[in-house]
Amino acid sequence: QGIVVGDFDHDGLIDMAVTCRDKNLVNILLKRNIVNPKPDNPVQPVSEAKQAA
């Protein structure tokens, strides 16, 4: 298993590729339409109860 970061789609944003050795699989996660929170306003985690609803 491994993780690689780079600008795979040449948009200037860092993307990530993750491998799964057991399934002979590579997932490429492109950073698109993601909002980075301001340092003084961090993102709050969602509780499991809210996720199940």
Descriptive report:
This is VCBS repeat-containing protein. With 53 residues, this protein is mainly beta. The chain has a domain at 1-31. It is built from one helix and three strands. A three-stranded antiparallel β-sheet has the order 1-2-3, with no helix packed on it. The longest helix is centred in the C-terminal third of the chain and has 5 residues, at 48-52.
Report a brief summary of the structure.
This protein has 53 residues and is mostly beta strands.
Name the features.
53 residues, mainly beta, three-stranded antiparallel sheet, 9% helix, VCBS repeat-containing protein
What fraction of the residues are assigned to beta strands by DSSP? 25-35%
Number of strands: 3
Q: Numbering strands along the chain, what is their spatial order in the largest sheet? A: 1-2-3
Radius of gyration, CA atoms, in whole angstroms = 15 Å
The overall average pLDDT, rounded, is 75
H/E series:
EEEH
Number of helices: 1
- Backbone shape: extended
Largest sheet: 3 strands, antiparallel
Percent of residues in helices comes to under 10%
Structural class: mainly beta
Distance between the termini: 33 Å
Sequence stretches where pLDDT stays below 50 over 5 or more residues: none
Organism: marine metagenome
Protein name: VCBS repeat-containing protein
